[in-house]
Prior knowledge:
Blueprint: H1 3-7, E1 18-21, E2 24-29, E3 36-41, E4 51-54, H2 57-64, H3 70-80
Antiparallel strand pairs: 1-4, 2-3
Amino acid sequence: xxxxxxxxxxxxxxxxxxxxxxxxxxxxxxxxxxxxxxxxxxxxxxxxxxxxxxxxxxxxxxxxxxxxxxxxxxxxxxxxx
Length: 81
């Protein structure tokens, strides 16, 4: 999974055995203010990005006992990728 896809995940995207990747977080610089903007888009980076990923058994226990935060998703990505 891409980092932006991990950041865009919601609890409703996770089924018993799979993750539905269907949105992404993007970051860009506002041309007027120069501010860094982060937003979640309700569609993936490409058409092929809308997909289902099977959750490995080793991750199921962790997912069921953990709250859903961006830092948690990043830690899971690093651990299981």
